[in-house]
Specification:
Elements: E1 2-8, H1 13-26, E2 31-37, H2 44-56, E3 60-64, H3 89-96, H4 108-123, E4 127-132, H5 137-140, H6 150-163, E5 168-171, H7 179-188, H8 211-222
Parallel strand pairs: 1-2, 1-4, 2-3, 4-5
Helix pairs in contact: 1-7, 7-8
Length: about 230
């Protein structure tokens, strides 16, 4: 079997860093990316995922899982009646206790990984495929996103390997790493962060106050660099 990589790409910092890692490890001729439309409030992240793929010259796929989330009222979804919370994850956990935050989309990573495994077996029928996901330890802190935890990723990895005749394997290179660590690795690999989008809102510029904007700003600050996506 030849070795291929399929990166679950959201167009954000973490998954785009995974694209850089995969390209370095497999060679761009062996890497593809895939993004998921799940009914989110804007398509900016999907557009960024496409731009990242174009930057590296990679085949890019987009899957539509929006129907699966039509009954959820998660604040990230276009049909939701809930507003996105503009506080850090730490503040949300301090106020509400540990457990899922309002931006947790029900079993999203589980559904995405399953769909991507199916895609991998379809486009790489005779190859050994590493499925990259950019989940990191900060996402799992306080059990804010249970489907980003190492325990979850290990369990899903075993299930996907079994269900694909050991053809597909989950690779989560940052599962035990902070977001600052993700950015550190990305800077080493010259990841094109200027092409990425992390904000939960879909404006012309990042809001700077939602949980993911705050995390992103801290990660770049910890590395002593300005976020290139915010440069004019």
């Amino acid at each position: 079997m030849n070795k291929k990589a399929l990166v679950l790409s959201s167009g954000g910092v973490d998954s785009t860093t995974c694209v850089s890692v995969a390209v370095e490890g497999f060679g761009k001729e062996n890497v593809s990316t895939v993004s998921i439309f799940y009914g989110q409030k804007h398509r900016k992240e999907l557009e960024c995922a496409q731009k990242v793929a174009e930057y590296y010259g990679l085949p890019h796929y987009e899957l539509d899982l929006s129907k699966l989330f039509q009954y959820s009222n998660c604040s990230l979804l276009a049909h939701s009646t809930e507003e996105i919370v503009h506080k850090s994850y730490e503040q949300q956990i301090a106020e509400n206790g540990e457990g899922k935050v309002s931006t947790y989309v029900p079993f999203r990573n589980g559904l995405m990984l399953s769909a991507v495994a199916s895609l991998a077996m379809s486009i790489y029928e005779k190859d050994d495929v590493s499925i990259f996901i950019g989940a990191h330890a900060d996402d799992a802190a306080g059990n804010a996103y249970a489907d980003c935890s190492e325990a979850f990723l290990d369990a899903m990895g075993r299930a996907i390997s079994l269900g694909t005749y050991n053809q597909c394997h989950i690779v989560a290179p940052f599962a035990s790493c902070s977001k600052a660590g993700v950015v550190k690795r990305g800077l080493e690999l010259h990841t094109p962060y200027e092409l990425t989008w992390s904000c939960y809102e879909g404006g012309d510029k990042p809001c700077g106050t939602c949980g993911t904007c705050i995390d992103r700003a801290r990660a770049f600050a910890a590395n002593g660099v300005k976020d290139p996506a915010l440069e004019d």
